[in-house]
Design a protein that fits this description.
Number of strands: 16
Helix content: 25-40%
Shape: elongated
Largest sheet: 8 strands, mixed
CATH class of the largest domain: Alpha Beta
């Protein structure tokens, strides 16, 4: 097809993307703090002459999480607008369909362990999820589509999103009317994955990522001397019993053909080996696909925690924060991306992806318009680039960025030209 011969990333753009991604990797910014990244994106769009709005979006949590649950978890959300998000607009030959293309910009609170020239310069902050590559790729897409304005009808909206790693930046941007004026008809996005090599992608219709909820359980006991436990109510023992029994929900209460995960990654209690602490805090996550399973787990987490607390003479508070919904890839959009990728990469480099249990706030976009979020292969075992996102040694084969640009540009042209 024509797209295959014309959609090529120039050596100059490829070199610029590698340099830009490394700069972003060295200068990561946490959710809601992406000020430098936002300035870089805006500067690039200005150089291209692409119209764009800045100060879009912000902290979306107050828009989808119950206020009482936020308060119980000790979370005070920030403003929903005036943040670091950017919405660019590229108009084609004439009015037509409107396609949204999204990239997230925030980093994670992780200490990088890679020994590379572009290692993070910020202690405790790292682009361990590939958002530096996502942002760079969308800037490359902006350049190539801007050069091809005479090759498509309709409009492309470029969504540079803050705060994907928890605060729901996509919701805040939706609240800031990014899907309106003109109204968005469909959306695409990508996420890096070490399941495939650079030059390959994974895509499939149906569920792509799970609903992601957060749980915080606070146990209030009675502190005391470790040698006199009978004069205390040991919060650590109560918390341990709650933790263990909650693991039986999935194994004994959920249909084996349904998918669910309950994981507690943090248990905080006490500071001395000979002191029984008066309180303990469990923090975890619940991942599901089925709304009924999601409802059941929330109900049972609260019941089990309260029941154990009562049985063991402790008071228990549970904050259950409904997070991102499950992301469902639209079948038609998924097939469109698959076909476009096959044209530019060859069908042998397009793979069927399986649903994952990670959370993704692109799901909020997918609730509004037909969406496809595909995986971009970034693995290179020969270079040691094999680690999954959120690992302190996560890195990418930078050859993948040109692949991402080509697939997104080909998908955009195919969609807009019908």
């Amino acid at each position: 097809m024509a797209e295959k011969s014309t959609i090529e990333v120039s050596p100059e753009l490829d070199s610029w993307m590698r340099e830009t991604r490394r700069y972003l990797h060295m200068n990561p910014e946490l959710s809601l703090q992406e000020n430098n990244t936002s300035r870089l994106v805006s500067g690039h769009l200005n150089e291209l002459g692409v119209k764009h709005r800045t100060g879009v979006g912000g902290d979306g949590r107050s828009l989808y999480i119950d206020a009482e649950q936020l308060k119980a978890a000790g979370i005070t959300p920030g403003p929903t607008t005036g943040g670091t998000g950017i919405l660019g607009t590229i108009e084609g030959r004439k009015a037509g369909k409107v396609l949204l293309i999204r990239a997230d910009m925030d980093a994670l609170p992780i200490d990088e362990l890679n020994d590379v020239p572009y290692k993070s310069t910020k202690s405790g902050v790292m682009h361990a999820c590939g958002h530096d590559a996502h942002t760079t790729i969308l800037m490359g897409v902006a350049e190539m589509l801007n050069e091809r304005r005479d090759q498509f009808d309709g409009t492309v909206k470029l969504m540079f999103q803050p705060a994907e790693e928890g605060p729901g930046g996509a919701v805040a941007m939706i609240h800031d009317k990014i899907l309106d004026d003109p109204k968005v008809d469909a959306a695409i996005a990508l996420h890096v994955s070490p399941l495939w090599r650079a030059g390959q992608i994974g895509v499939a219709p149906g569920f792509s990522s799970a609903a992601s909820d957060r749980v915080q359980i606070t146990v209030h006991g009675v502190g005391g001397h470790a040698a006199r436990p009978h004069m205390s109510v040991d919060s650590t023992v109560v918390a341990s019993q709650i933790l263990l029994l909650l693991q039986t929900i999935v194994s004994r209460e959920i249909d084996p053909f349904e998918q669910a995960v309950i994981t507690f990654g943090a248990l905080h209690a006490g500071s001395a080996p000979n002191v029984i602490p008066d309180s303990a805090v469990l923090q975890g996550t619940v991942r599901t696909y089925s709304p009924n399973v999601r409802d059941h787990i929330e109900k049972r987490v609260k019941e089990i925690a309260a029941g154990i607390g009562m049985a063991m003479r402790a008071e228990v508070d549970v904050a259950y924060l409904r997070g991102y919904p499950a992301l469902h890839n639209d079948p038609a959009m998924s097939e469109l991306v698959r076909a476009a990728a096959g044209d530019v990469l060859g069908p042998e480099n397009v793979f069927e992806r399986k649903p994952g249990m990670g959370g993704e706030d692109m799901a909020f976009i997918a609730q509004k318009v037909p969406t496809c979020m595909f995986n971009l292969g970034i693995a290179n075992p020969e270079q040691g680039k094999i680690y999954a996102p959120h690992h302190p040694r996560f890195d990418i084969d930078e050859d993948a960025m040109a692949t991402g640009v080509k697939v997104m540009v080909a998908s955009a042209l195919r969609y807009l030209n019908g």
